[in-house]
Amino acid sequence: MLQADGAIAAKAFKRTGALRAAGIVALACGALALPFAATAIGDPALISLATRIVIYAIAAASLNLILGYGGLVSFGHAAYFGVGAYAVGILYFHFHEAAPFLGFIPGTNRLLIAVPVAVATSAIFALVLGALSLRTAGLQFIMITLAFAQMVFFLFVSLKYYGGDDGLIVRRRDVLLDFDMADDTTFYFVCLAVAAAYFFVFWRVVESRFGLVLGGIRQNERRLAAIGISTYRYKLVAFVIAGAGAGLAGALMANFAKFVSPDLLHWSQSGDLMIMVILGGSATLFGPLIGAGMLIGLETVLTGWTEHWQAVLGPLLILVALFTRGGVVSLFTAPGGASHA
Amino acid sequence: MLEPLLRIDNLTKRFGSLAANDGLSLDVLPGEVHAVIGPNGAGKTTLISQLFGELAPDAGSIVFAGRDIGPLATAERVRIGLARSFQVTELLPDYSAVDNVALAVQARIGHSFRFWANARADPLLREQALQALRRVGLEDRGDVAVSEMSHGEQKQLELAIALAAKPRLLLLDEPMAGLGTTESAATVALLESLKGATTILLVEHDMDAVFALADRVSVLANGRCIATGAAADVRSDPAARQAYLGEGSA
Amino acid sequence: MNLLFEQTLNGVQFGVMLFLLAAGLTLIFGVMRIINLAHGAFYMIGAYGAALVGERTGSFAVAALAGLAAAAVAGLVIEYVVVRRLYARDHVQQVLATFGIILLVNEGATILFGRQPLYLPIPQLLSGTVQIVPGVPYPAYRLAIIAAGLIVAIGLAAFINRTRIGMLVRAGSTHREMVRALGVNIRLLYTLVFGLGALLAGLGGLLAAPLLSVQVGMGEQILILTFVVVVIGGVGSIRGAFAGAMVVGVVDTLLRGFLPTLLHRVMTVSAADALGGGLSSMGIYLIMALVLLIRPQGLIRAAS
User: Which tens digits make up the pLDDT trace of C249-261?
Assistant: First the structure.
């Protein structure tokens, strides 16, 4: 029987709906106040840190849809993250420096164009690679998703025109209406708004008819077939949605770092995303956010104390895996009760 | 003479050198309760798996409502009117009982590619799910997670899910297995209430239930059907007695 | 022609490395059904153990024994402390925990031994070349690795197929409940399988040490390809691990050896090198994807 992470989180929701709402409000207030607090205490680097966490939270959440809720352990999710980032980078490259892409597609530095293109491109990659990968299951599925991600990684490594191994610099962040995107605080709020919208839509999706089918697929695929559901198509749609979400995060990342490189697609990046989901709590709404915050936050904080911070992180991951029922979120919820998602 | 709803013709399935089903033929008439009995190893489970599309036959055909369903996958067969309860329950452990049934209702109604509205708040799905739970006596246990239900309740839930599909043909795989006397009686009563309205193919070991419910009984032995007929007739058929009843198991 | 021969042998030698890692991994996944991301750690520990002792004693033989011992002990300790608690858990927890092990072991090695790579010299006896085919000298050490690999492969096959314990391993992989019901000490069996896997990985590491530099991260690089080998060969099958390792080793080496050169004819050298490098790396994954799509259970299916 699979871990009842959702069951745990949901029982909490039912019994402590008010508590949860309060938590969300507190989180929102904290997130909104952060840049001002950071400036006040004289540590503006915190804003960059928070922006990174927000972007990775979106990426991890997108993986959570298929990994946590759907039970599909994809080890190649960084591919879609990287494709989204490169879409932005390549569009900017053709806007700023070179002739139109493939001769006729003009580049752009407008966020409202670049982001949808990035999302669509990642979605297409996910559609093709997912359609093939989902013909397998279990360890084979994990490995084939890794294999495809490696192929995309090496593809970008071999494209010297776009920097290859050295990566591609994006001179300026894409423009959005009249905002000053170069200002870190403004950019942080843009990412925050995107994340808030993303998590809201995500919440609706996992509670919808589609979300329930996906959760059913994770728990017992045989049962789903027995009620007349052809599971392949649902898994594929989930895979594409997840890929699109990762592309969205990647697009933001390209703007944040003003740099894209194949490192964004490296298998260790896929590993990091998986860790964020699992550490925070898979199949929970805020698990990925907590996981991203913990992994990135710990890395930053611990690096200040010791360069060997991974020797602390390692055992922490082991302890969480062995002694919690479902990641960090499960520490705050009680067991039992029916799952809400 | 009624056209059979299900016609199984010469069904054969081999595992290595063992022929689990060996030229098995039987048919199920619309509206009847048709029991399939036989000693362990007679091929009952293999038969159900092939009917449901989980195993591919080596030879023979399965015709449902005039249509050869051999090339159809399990989910497709369910969509044209087949439903099944599993001997070892196959449920969604993290979801509540009503969720499990509502999902079956949702699958029957169609339109699972809905991404916005909260599925658990859908009154149509909830109402039909509760109806099915009421029929099996589980309406008070709707919000309990399956992982917290007793074995008997889980078997009843299996039935509720199968009923929620409003099937044309219901395959019941040992619904009495593991049930106590009260629960068995309740299940028999439920199945009795379905007679005529739903066609049922019942695989069972519980002979009391079989003879109380069945219009016709087929006896399997060594992978084929060796006797078919009204319950009373099969009881006295020498070949059947020899293969099964005569061995004194129940 | 000589180059082709030499590269092919290099491919076989690389395949042997992969086999040593893949054999253990396929057994661990086949018998215990556990995803072990930390398998590369034993490869690294074997290399480190050998390099450190080799530096002190100057004897390759002693260094090799040290490497084997280090890997085996590490395997048993890790199994006892962490892995044994993962058998009953989800793949998800296994991924998290074994990932944590990688971080801990890698950082631990950095703390203990620093970031500088270590070296282990090729043993004197094997430092020359051999002419298997007249006129084509090939490094003796690499031949020795190939020979060692073949010996291990044969020994392992004999162990799995002809001994009692081997039979239990095979049975444990396909009929776990039955083995348990027969009263066999499953715990001990699992520990032995894990330890054996670690030992084989360590052997791979110490044999590779003279050819590469011994440093943190060497385990993860080769682990990805090891997973590819396991999947191509078929989970749970030693023969499959061998076949898969040979395919991956030879194809990967030949691609890297010849593709950039072939591309030189149609594009600039630097572009050809980049594209050739990228395509060669992709090649193996492409093959794995094809195998998975046509024959998902792998080339050789362990009866299951």
Answer: 999 999 888 888 8
Coil, strand or helix at B224: strand
Q: Which pair of structure tokens corresponds to residue B82?
A: 């087949």
pLDDT tens, residue by residue, C182-194: 777 778 888 989 9
Structure tokens at B103: 């999902």
- The C-alpha angle with vertex A207 and arms to A204 and A213, in degrees rounded to 5, equals 125
Residue B23 phi/psi, 5° resolution?
70, 45
The structure tokens 């933001």 sit at A252
In a domain, C90, yes or no: yes
- In this structure, of A94-108, B22-36, B145-159, C99-113, the range with the lowest mean pLDDT score is A94-108
Q: Domain coordinates of chain A in residue numbers?
A: 50-329
Q: Give the tens place of pLDDT for each residue, C40-79.
A: 999 999 999 999 998 888 888 899 999 999 999 999 999 9
Write the class of the CATH domain A50-329: mainly alpha
Strand partners, A110: A175
Q: Do chains C and B touch (3 or more CB pairs under 8 A)?
A: no
Is residue C105 within 8 Å of C38, Cβ to Cβ?
Answer: yes
Contact criterion met (CB below 8 Å) for B80 and B64: yes
Cβ contact B77:B64 at 8 Å: yes
pLDDT of res. C120: 85
User: How many other CB atoms are found less than 10 A from the CB of residue C188?
Assistant: 11
> Which amino acid, B229?
G
Give chain C's domain count.
1
Higher-pLDDT residue of B129 and B237 is B129
Using a CB–CB cut-off of 8 Å, the residues of B that contact A are: 52, 73-76, 78-79, 83-84, 86, 90-96, 99, 103-104, 106-108, 111-120, 122, 143-145, 147-148, 161, 165
Mark whether A and B touch (3+ CB pairs within 8 Å): yes
Report the distance separating Cα B27 and Cα B46, nearest Å: 16
Nearest Cα to B17, choosing from B53, B61, B68, B58? B58
Give me C291's structure tokens.
């195998």
Q: Which two tokens stand for residue A117?
A: 């293109």
**What ipTM goes with this model?**
0.90
**Structural domain containing residue C190:** 10-126+138-294
**Does some domain include residue C275?**
yes
Residue C280 lies in a domain: yes
Does residue C36 lie in a domain region? Answer: yes
The answer to whether B25 touches B14, Cβ cutoff 8 Å, is no
Tokens read off for C54:
């080799």
